Amino acid sequence: MTVKPDRQANPVRLGPRSIAALALVSAVGIVAIGWPLITGPGSQVNAHAQDAPWLFAALLVLLVAVVAATISESGLGPKAVAMLGVLAAAGAALRPIGAGTAGIEPMFFLMVLSGRVLGPGFGFVLGSLSMFASALLTGGVGPWMPFQMLSMGWFTMGAGLLPGPHSLRGLPERVMLAAYGFLAAFAYGTIMNLAGWPFMNALASSVAYQPDAALHENLARFLAYCLATSLGWDLGRAALTVVLTLTVGGAVLKALRRATRRAAFEAQVTFDGS
Fold it and tell me: SS3 sequence, 164-200?
C-alpha cells in the first residue's frame, strides 16, 4: 500500500451540505449584526432591541455548532482534528498577549496564514473555535462572543478563498496575505462595532444609534462612533498583521504546508500488487 499526498492538501472539503450550512449561518449573522441598518423607523424590531444580543447569541451558537458538525462529516479526520486543536490553542494563547493594548493581537496573523494553507472550510471552524477558546481563557464570555466567533470565522475563511493557493508563493503571496490581513482587520473591527453600537448608552447622542433616524443619519453616527472608539485598535491590529506576515510569514507558511503534507490529509490511498 502506498500513500500519495497532494502537494497542497486541504483537510476539509466543502460539500453541498457544508456550503448550505455556512450560507445559513452567514445570512443569520448578517441580519443579527446589521439589523439597525435594515429596520426602518417604527419597526417592531426596535421595540425588542435590548433582547437582540441574547436571542441572536443563542441562535448563532447553535448554527456554528451545526456548521462544525457538518464540516466534520465531510472528512475532518483525526489528524485534521489534532491540527485544529493545536492551531486553535495557539490562537487562543496569542490573543491575550496584547489584549487592550492598541490592538496588538498576533492571533490575526496566525489565522490569516492558517486559512490560506488549510482552506476556507477548515478556516471557518478554526477561527470560530479559536475565538471561543480565547473567550474561555480570558473570561470574555458574553453576548458579544458569538459575533466574535462568526467574525473571526469569516476572517479566516476569507484567507482560504484568496486566489492562487497552489501556485502563488514567496513574496507576492505574502504581500497578498498582508493586504488581505490589513483590510480584514478593519472589517473585523467594524463588524464588532456594529454588533455593539445599538446598545451603547443613548446619552452619547452624537454617535448613538437612533431607532427613529433615517439610514444616512445612522450611518453618519456609526462612522463617528468607529472613528472615536476603535480606529486606534483597528489600525494597530492591521499594522501588526502586515508586519508579521511580511517578516515571519514565509517560515510559518512553510511549516504549515509541511505539517499538512506529512499528515497526508485526504491522501489518495492505493494498493499495489505486493
Answer: CCCCCCHHHHHHHHHHHHHHHHHHHHHHHHHHHHHHC
Q: How many CA atoms lie within 13 A of 21 on its CB side?
A: 23
Residue ranges in 74-144 assigned as alpha helix (H)? 78-94, 107-118, 120-138
User: Is the full-model pTM beyond 0.85?
Assistant: no
With left for phi above 0 and alpha for psi between -120 and 50, is residue 266 left, alpha or beta?
left
Please name which of 181, 182, 222 lies closest in space to residue 200, comparing C-alpha atoms: 222
Helix, strand, or coil (residue 11): coil
Q: What is the pLDDT of residue 59?
A: 60
Residues 6+ apart with CB under 8 A from 204: none
Assess contact for 80 and 265: CB atoms under 8 A: yes
- Per-residue pLDDT reduced to its tens digit, 21-35: 777 777 877 877 877
Look up residue 83 and give its amino acid: M
Q: What does the CA dihedral 28, 30, 36, 37 come to, rounded to 10 degrees?
A: -130
Q: How many CB atoms lie within 10 A of CB 216?
A: 8
For 27, the grid coordinates are: 445570512
pLDDT tens digits, residue range 206-239?
777 777 777 788 888 888 888 888 888 888 889 9
- Amino acid 65 reads A
